[in-house]
Specification:
Oligomer: single chain
Number of strands: 12
Mean pLDDT: 90
Helix content: 40-55%
Strand content: 15-25%
Distance between the termini: 67 Å
Number of domains: 3
Strand order of the largest sheet: 2-1-3-4-5-11
Largest sheet: 6 strands, parallel
CATH class of the largest domain: Alpha Beta
CATH topology of the largest domain: Rossmann fold
Low-confidence stretches: 49-56
Length: 335
């Protein structure tokens, strides 16, 4: 097994950041320099195992890995990330991948590492643990957006998913709804799990029984949103309100509603998520949960720059921003 920068730091008796500074041509104390050089020679340490050598210059490029350039969240946050990186003097290498094919993300991660990028901002939807580990071990700072990855020591920027789902569900309950359908992504992702937790918390506080049949959790896609709405509306005791907790899920659910000529909110009250454009052009306007995508992108870049410049070398930071509810006319008050 090849040695790592952590091994060098341990043998030299210095911090990882000091070894990194030495490798990248920075100034370190003479006694530290001698210890690091001795450790590198003893361990036969190869920086990044390939041509990074004792590099003195950065590539001034950052890789951005997102599941789809067609997704509203992905294309929106990419725009803000690119603006911030450009302002800081960095170019952006954009990679998207099919979240239904884990090998696609693996190939793109390898591509970025081989490009010797200075950092990665990643939305890790259905990315395998071993691929995340490989990226983290490449001594390249990583910041996750949209999801946290507790098993990897990297910074992340998300919203408080429990809070926004709780507040949306509370809004429906306050308007008299007790049978509330929830459309979410697949279980096992902290984004989905947290939104489900917020939904359940609101129901439990109001002493409303949780009906498992009112939870529809599948992959995040328009098809899933469509099928979920079909599932709910074909039930004999169908819900009086539905909360679709993602952009594609919202689009798919609305497609079903339109196809069946259902009326919002007379036939069903509806709350969507993320896409204000859809919310405002739909008649009536939709109540919708809004992520602060610009701030998420800006914060992710700030955290990454601090890591790349070694201005911060401490424990992982998990930043959770507050989402807001944009109230429309899609929720009917019932008795």
């Amino acid at each position: 097994m090849s040695s790592t920068i952590k091994d060098v730091a341990k043998m030299a008796g210095v911090s990882i950041s000091t070894v990194s500074k030495f490798i990248n041509g920075g100034n370190v104390l003479e006694e530290n320099r001698a210890q690091i050089e001795q450790a590198i020679e003893t361990l036969n340490y190869q920086v990044n195992t390939v041509a990074r050598g004792m590099k003195t210059r950065k590539t001034m490029s950052v890789g951005v890995l997102i599941p789809s350039l067609a997704d509203y969240y992905g294309i929106s946050i990419l725009s803000y990330i690119d603006q911030e990186l450009y302002a800081a003097g960095y170019s952006t290498i954009i990679c998207d991948y099919n979240q239904g094919d884990p090998s696609g993300a693996s190939d793109k991660i390898n591509f970025l590492i081989n490009k010797q990028i200075d950092g990665i901002i990643m939305q890790p939807m259905n990315v395998r643990q071993e691929d995340i580990d490989r990226a983290a071990k490449a001594d390249v700072p990583i910041v996750f957006v949209d999801m946290e990855y507790p098993t990897v020591s990297c910074d992340s920027v998300t919203i408080d998913n429990v809070d926004i789902a709780y507040r949306i569900t509370r809004h429906l309950i306050e308007n008299g709804h007790k049978r509330i359908g929830f459309i979410g992504g697949a279980e096992g992702y902290n984004t989905t799990d947290d939104r489900v937790a917020g939904y359940k918390k609101a129901l439990e506080e109001s002493k409303i029984p949780i009906d498992p049949d009112l939870l529809y959790l599948e992959n995040v896609s328009e098809e899933s949103g469509f099928m979920a709405m079909m599932h709910f509306m074909q039930k004999k005791d169908r819900p009086t309100a539905v909360f679709a907790s993602g952009n594609d899920l919202t689009c798919g659910a609305v497609m079903y509603i339109n196809e069946k000529h259902l009326q919002i909110p007379d036939d069903v009250s509806f709350v969507g998520f993320e896409n204000q454009t859809i919310a405002h052009v739909y008649n009536p306007t939709l109540t919708i949960g809004i992520q602060p995508i610009r701030k998420i992108g800006q914060t992710a870049v700030r955290l990454l720059l601090e890591r790349m410049k070694e201005e911060y070398t401490g424990d992982p930071r998990n930043i959770r921003l507050k989402a807001v509810i944009d109230f429309g006319a899609s929720v009917k008050k019932i008795k």
